[in-house]
Amino acid sequence: MRAFLAALASLALTAWSVPTLAQTAAAPVAFSTDEAAVRAVLHQYQQAVQKLDTTGTTRLFVPNSVVLESGSREGTYAHYRDHHLGPELKEFNSFTYADYKADVTVDGNYAFATESYTYTIGLKKDPKAKTAPAPIKRRGVASSVLRKNAAGQWQFVSTHNSAHK
């Protein structure tokens, strides 16, 4: 019995997740290993956007991924990165997430994530303008499907995000 309880305690300790953007000093939440890995992928993508740098993000997506944004089919992540996200990030001084919450459900080799957040975009000042544009603040949501590949890595299969004032 003592060995069983020790193993159970050990398993519980290894299930703690790396804190997400919204977690603070509140009590930690235990996640399964797969759920924690999915949350880590979500976090890595958020961090890249906040750094205004998509370098290395392609590995987070399957090659034939689908990106949907605010009523538009953007194509694969590679297309979205090169023709939408990348050029947009070059126009920003900053991009920050706040009030982040995520629900993740893992079912075998698939995971389903729904996220809600507030984001604020700081735009670069046009050299011809007297002042920088006001920051853009929006409420956003995203729903994503991720799949565990043969190497055990979680990747986005599809993601859909939208926002409003």
UniProtKB/TrEMBL annotation:
Record has Signal as a keyword: yes
InterPro entries tied to this protein: NTF2-like_dom_sf, SnoaL-like
Positions of the SnoaL-like domain: 38-163
Signal sequence segment: 1-22
Keyword Heme: no
Swiss-Prot/TrEMBL keywords: Signal
Protein name as annotated: SnoaL-like domain-containing protein
